[in-house]
Amino acid sequence: MPPATATARTGAGEPKSPTRQSAPEARAAGPAARTPDPSTSRRPPDEPDLVERPGPALPGWTAVLLGAAALGSAAELLHGAGPLRAVRLRPWEWGALAGCAVVAVIAFGGLTRGRTGSAWVLSLFGRYRGSVRRTGLVWISPFVLRRRIDVRLRHWRSEPIAAVDAEGTALRAVVLVVWSVRDTARALLAVDDHQDYLREQVEAATARVLSQLPADAFRGDGPSLRDAEAVGDRLTRVLAAECRPVGVAVFSAQPTRIEYAPEVAAAMRRRQIAAIDAKHRDTVLTSVIDAVDDTVTRLTTRGLVDLDDFERQALVKDLTVAFYTRRGGLTDQGQE
To answer: How wide is the angle at C-alpha 283 spanned by C-alphas 282 and 287, nearest 5°?
Structure first.
């Protein structure tokens, strides 16, 4: 190979690996690049062979007609001139009578009732054979194992879940989850108990999502856990991704209550009051300064007073004290 070709393959023209990042680029990315998104974390693997499919079933009236025909045929064979007719049956008649009895037992033994909002999951010798979502009178083979599963839209309210926010403050959260079984095969066979799995995933997802933001933005108007809509959307995405491999569809996961743990509630309440008071005082002081500036500007612009620097400073001081005292007193009276 010519040297020029080798240089081109190993030099600046070589594509960089997308998984490697230089140190300056990593520092420039900041904390956002180092904080993983909880909705893109590693999820349980899907089982491609375990997917819901229609199971073998027939309308119930078909089995009823077949069983009635078998009973009628047996009665016709037994119909004779006297009570000893059954003893004089020929071998083929005994075989036909036994076949009619077997057909009647299988026909009537497989009848069951399909309910709206539920489904039958069928298995034979431990192997999944399909799911039946029919309603009304249904015939299913009596040789398969039938297990009923609820596929209605359901909701569940959690108990207070222990978590911490981005600053490490202990929290208690209650979450309302709206869900349903989407894939009956996976919900019943891919996990031991899909309801217990959902409850545990709610606790884990709540702890992960709440740890991404502070409970309250005391130092500004940044994002916090008080934005219930944003927190609920992220929690819904995380839960939906975690529960999809087991056949459970999560439509909504909304925190109904996020509060501080009892051991830190009093201290955080005092901090909230102090932050509100500081913000209020800053607002009042800003309005007072604007009013003083406007007053002094009007007096000097219209020529009502002629002030030097010392007199201007004294006037500004007196007006600031007067306006602040007045506005602070009115605010305190309004709060009382």
So the answer is: 115
Between 87 and 262, the more confident residue is: 262
Residue 312 buriedness (CB in 10 A; 0-12 / 13-18 / 19+): middle
Q: What whole-number distance in Å separates Cα of residue 110 and Cα of residue 207?
A: 48
The torsion angles phi and psi of 122, rounded to 5 degrees, stand at -105, 140
Structure tokens at 271: 């901090």
> Is the full-model pTM beyond 0.70?
no
Higher pLDDT, residue 131 or 4: 131
Q: What order do you get walking across the sheet with 136-139 strand by strand?
A: 58-59, 136-139, 111-114
Q: Does 179 have pLDDT greater than 80? A: yes
The number of C-alpha atoms within 13 Å of 284 and in the hemisphere containing its C-beta is: 19
Burial class (CB in 10 A: 0-12, 13-18, 19+), 137: middle
Decide: 214 and 166 in contact? Cβ < 8 Å.
Answer: yes
| Bridge partners, 54 (sequence order) | 131
Task: Tell me the pLDDT tens digit for each residue of 92-105.
Answer: 777 888 888 899 99
- Output the CA–CA distances (angstroms, integers) from residue 207 to 80, 228, 232, 239, in the order listed: 79, 15, 13, 12
Cα gap 191→196, rounded to integer Å: 9
Separation of alpha carbons 50 and 131, rounded Å? 12
Q: Are strands 127-132 and 154-157 parallel, antiparallel or unpaired?
A: unpaired
Model confidence band, residue 19 (pLDDT cutoffs 50, 70, 90): very low
Residues 6+ apart with CB under 8 A from 278: none
β partners of residue 146 = 122
According to the model, what pLDDT value does residue 14 have?
A: 40
CA distance 271 to 144: 64
Instruction: Report the C-alpha gap between 130 and 120 in whole angstroms.
Output: 9
Distance CA 215, CA 261 (A): 12
